[in-house]
Amino acid sequence: MSTPGTPSTTAHSWPARVVGFLMFIVHFTRELVMANIAIAKSVLFQKTTDLAPGFLIYPLKGLSRFEILVLTHSITLTPGTASVMISDDYTELTVHAFDARDPEAVRASIKTGLEDPLLAWTR
């Protein structure tokens, strides 16, 4: 794991990084499409009283500043979520979610859909 502001310690060859980047783009696009569908379903079919927007904390420990930058922008570009604030020590991110009834599910979705593919690219 790298500390904020330092590059990751594991070096990959450039072909591996290119493949990792392309896989990140595929995962991000999938998350983008799925989030658009979920938002459309919520807007069209859910009662406003059933909506539960809210804030949650997402852990950033071990991510470099570049990884934090890409992750926060990816979260904000995905419909239904927005990066709000990074803690002063770069270990926590406050996220606003359109549907925060299950904060652990939102965290797991960010982890598997965005952070893991990002780390496969950058490390």
Describe the protein.
- With 123 residues, the chain is an alpha+beta fold.
- It has one domain (14-122).
- Helices cover 53% and strands 15% of the residues.
- The protein has helices at 14-45, 65-77, 103-122; strands spanning 54-59, 81-86, 92-97.
- A three-stranded antiparallel sheet has the order 1-3-2.
- A hairpin with a 5-residue loop joins strand 2 and strand 3 (92-97).
- Helix 1 packs antiparallel against helix 3 (103-122) and helix 2 (65-77) crosses helix 3 (103-122).
- The chain is flat.
- It starts with 13 loop residues before the first helix and ends with a helix.
- The model has no long low-confidence stretch (mean pLDDT 92).
Keywords:
15% strand; 3 helices; 3-stranded antiparallel sheet; 123 residues; alpha+beta
Q: Which percent band covers the strand fraction?
A: 5-15%
The separation of the N and C termini measures 9 Å
Quick one: how many beta strands? 3
Taken from the alpha-carbon principal axes, the silhouette is flat
Characterize the biggest β-sheet. 3 strands, antiparallel
What count of domains describes the coordinates?
1
Percent helix among the residues? 40-55%
What value does the average pLDDT take? 92
Structural class: alpha+beta
Number of distinct helices: 3
Strand order of the largest sheet: 1-3-2
Radius of gyration: 15 Å
H and E order = HEHEEH
What ranges have pLDDT less than 50 throughout 5 or more consecutive residues? none
